[in-house]
Request: fold
Amino acid sequence: FLRGLPLLAKSPRHDFRLVFNSMLAYASVNHFHWHGMYLNHCGFPDARLPVEKVDRSVIAGAITEGRVSAELLVESQWYVRGFVISAGCRQGAEGDRPPADLEALASIAQLVVAELHRRNIPHNVILAPPSERRRKQVASTGMAHEEVAKPNSLSPDIYILPRQVESAMREDACFHSGVMEVSGLLIAQTEESYEAFTEESLKEVFRSDVCLPETEFDDLICKVAWLIG
Reply:
């Protein structure tokens, strides 16, 4: 992540993304590497992947000074469950939207991925640049009669999507389930399968063949919340 986040920041284009497939989650080779892409050339003129438009619910932390946040994708709005990690600014940073502490962001994201490795859980990852999506400010209480509002940082988002192994995917699904598919860019393998796809049929494949079992993911939520502290 300490390589990926600075690389993400080097592009002035808001449609630039870095994506990753772990082993058993449609990785093409057995080593760590990022795929870079410009969304404007992939049929996304609003410069956002569909998964980025999903609402989120906070499970721990905040994006204010010295903190890191973990959120969940709202399950009713997306095919797979996953986490979104973002960070507040460094202590003492100034401005209405100070830049995020990338080292803190990378550190927490790596802890989450390390936990997935420990549990042998495949995963897909997306790095997205800071957006203008505003979150509620957190009030910091000093004296009993004082409240000082802390500004939210301008943070990149790290999407971490734990999932089942790729071999769990049914043979007749007619699409893969790598990072782009779980992000919302699905390529049908035949014209016939494309014509047969429905919202409900796709949802059923993702829920049955891609998503982690509910109890396993719920246990991960508790662990991630604990890592954020």
Remarks:
- Helices lie at 4-10, 102-118, 179-183, 191-196, 199-210, 214-228.
- The first strand starts at residue 16 and ends at 21.
- DSSP finds six helices and nine strands in the chain.
- Strands lie at 16-21, 35-38, 56-61, 68-73, 83-87, 123-128, 138-141, 147-150, 157-162.
